[in-house]
Amino acid sequence: MSNKKIKIKEELMEKEEINRSLSRIAHEIIEKNKGTKNLALIGIRTRGVPLTRRIASKIKETENSEITVGILDITLYRDDFSKIAQNPVVKKTNIPFDIEDKKIVLIDDVLYTGRTIRSALDALIDFGRPQFIQLAVLIDRGHRELPIRPDFVGKNIPTPKNEVIDVRVQEIDGEDKVLLMEKLST
Questions:
Q1: Could you read off the pLDDT of 46-99 as tens digits, one per residue?
Q2: Cα–Cα distance for residue pair 176/21, rounded to 1 Å
Q3: 19, 119, 160, 169: which is deepest, by most CB within 10 A?
Q4: What are the structural domains, with CATH classification, of the chain?
């Protein structure tokens, strides 16, 4: 059995580029939804949450209206639940509004195989039936295993499977940047 180590291969985005991407996503959300009426944003734990709050803030600046924000933990909905940890930590889902007939934008940091988003959709539907669900991601790295496509993308970064995209956000990691990491066998 081999141990995997990871090293930084390249910095793909810095703070300013992340900020510009989130501003563009916010404007695209407003445009596609013809404003903010009946709109709500839901961030997938962990890094989807601060990205969601930032996008909501940018929408508020542009449209001068508050955007309802929720937090979704998908741990119990994952199809690899038994593989992720001996005792996975389930964090709180906080959706303090009725999603019935709402326009929902689900937000995450990286879209890869689509399995996280499938889990999020399963979890979200347990709360009701929204008018529709759109998907916004900061990074789309390809390699889909499920037929899931984002509506809003900060940046497309095709990567080989032996590489990892590491999104770091100030609120959690103390810095804003996106790194390309390489898995090394030892």
A1: 999 999 999 999 999 999 999 999 999 998 875 554 444 555 566 789 999 999
A2: 12
A3: 169
A4: 14-159 (3.40.50.2020)
